[in-house]
Amino acid sequence: MDSHWAVDGDRVVDGGRVTLWKFQPSNFHTHTAQSRPRNSRSAPAPGDGTISDVILRICSRDEWSAVPEGGRYTAPSLEAVGFIHCSDLGTVGLPANALYRGRTDLLLLEVDPAKVGAPVRWEEGVPPHPEGILFPHVYGPIPRNAVVSVTDYPPDGDGTLKLPDSLAVR
User: Are 140 and 117 in contact (CB under 8 A)?
Assistant: First the structure.
């Protein structure tokens, strides 16, 4: 029997993962265990009905401005561990607050995995999250044209980084 996402008001709940979501009949989809990134070892197929077909990469304004038109974004982790750490809408706050809390120079890159041209695998974080949350890892550079949107990622007054409203409510 397939497992399904549950919709609870403005939240999509899948086990311990909660994603904010603005309900509109046009974006209501049923998700089976086969299409859910949470239990998958690779990115969902384009157009498979996932609520968000993007993954997020946190980077600084300077890092992003250094990527020329037609160029490719890389991160030190690509050379060090072989992939670029990314997140999704429901998990980006975890690495953001663990690694970048209080920084005022951050952006969120919305990346279309179908345009990356490299494997995107949903795997344990480094270190693994105690609840088994999986994160997307991009096994190659991210072409600039795979970045479909760039959003400022400012901290709150106490330094906490939260998903911007423009991404949380769609």
Answer: yes
Joined together, the tokens standing for residue 151 give 């959003």
Q: Helices (H), strands (E): how many in the chain? A: 4, 11
What is the SS3 assignment for 101-134?
A: CCCCCEEEEEECHHHCCCCEEEEECCCCCCCCCE
> How many CB atoms lie under 10 A from the CB of residue 68?
8
- At 57-114, the pLDDT tens digits run 999 999 999 999 999 999 999 999 999 999 999 999 999 999 999 999 999 999 999 9
Peptide bond just before 68 cis, omega within 30 deg: no
List pLDDT tens digits, range 15-42: 444 444 333 333 323 222 223 344 333 4
Backbone angles phi, psi at 39, to 5 degrees: -110, 10
What tokens appear for 11 in the block?
A: 């939240």
Distances in Å between the alpha carbon of 152 and those of 21, 132, 141, 168? 20, 28, 21, 13
C-alpha 5/C-alpha 57 separation (Å) is 24
Q: What is the three-class DSSP state of 14? A: strand
Is residue 151's pLDDT more than 80?
yes
The DSSP bridge partners found for residue 58 are 108
Q: Is the dihedral of CA 145, 44, 41, 94 positive or negative?
A: positive
